[in-house]
Amino acid sequence: MPARTSTPTTCAFLFPGQGAQTIGMAVDLCARVPRARAVFDRGRELLGFDVLEVCRGGPQEVLDSTRVSQPAIFLHSIATLEALAERFGVAGACGTGIPAAAAAGLSLGEYSALVFAGSLEFEDALRVVGKRGEYMQAACDARQGTMASVMGLGAAEVEAVVESSRAEGLEVGIANYNSPAQTVISGAVPAVESCVEKLKSAGAKRVILLRVAGAYHSELMRSATRDLEPLLAKLAISRPRVPFFANCSGARVEDPEEVRRGLLMQVESPVRWDRSVRGIIARGVTRAVEIGPAKVLQGLVKNIDRDVPVESLGTVEALDNLDAIPV
Predict the structure, then answer these.
(1) CATH match for 11-140+220-320 among 3.40.366.10, 3.30.1360.120, 2.60.40.200, 1.10.20.10
(2) N or C terminus of the chain: which is more exposed, having fewer CB within 10 Å?
(3) In 3D, which of 88, 68, 61, 89 has the Cα closest to residue 26?
């Protein structure tokens, strides 16, 4: 049952970032859907290693490494789009023929969202994602950093504590505005640990140190930004075919040069996911689908607006349960 791109839709497409990876991800899709397998085959050719084999058998610490997890999640999202398009007879590579009310991705997920939106070509994006993972891994190895999730304390209160810590010379900042109830901080290990104690004293209900390889979306990623800049300068970027909401501003971005600046800035800058989701909902979106592994974004959107259901599509079972293309 072919979908028509002119079909009115109130469904947004959301794409996960690093942290969504799990052993076994994408294996069922690649076993069942030739177009999904072709995505990972091309990934092996361009990246020089078999991402699907790591997804299948790990070990977990290898899959969790920034160098591997970023291309793995990106390829899984694109493979899911191909499987969705094949199931419903939609023309166009990487889901570009599927109608959508909006698109957004969390951190790394911006690259998946931009491919879906027709703003980036798949192979161009994959090459950058592969290098992005390498550069960020190198930054993690050079400086020991960490992150912590802060729950039950408003963003303004978290900002005040972070600014107080920075005034003391501590390398810490806000990495993610995930929802009204959750903010993530990032920075050097001693700085984050000190800030955690201050946040608890300020009234945070829970503060959890995250199991991450480094301080993403912080100044400790500066070397990755520097190394990534020449690649992004040469990246071909088109105007998105659907409304695209960017991490750095949380607002809709249409100009290709603004897209380029955002992709560079977001390596060190906070992800304003809360603002992005609210902007998408303001366009009349009443439903969203999460394209890729796990259900991280499903939970985040629920904490922002419980009236907007999010369906996670990243497995054969999830796709088989669909009666029609999400609109």
Answers:
(1) 3.40.366.10
(2) N
(3) 68
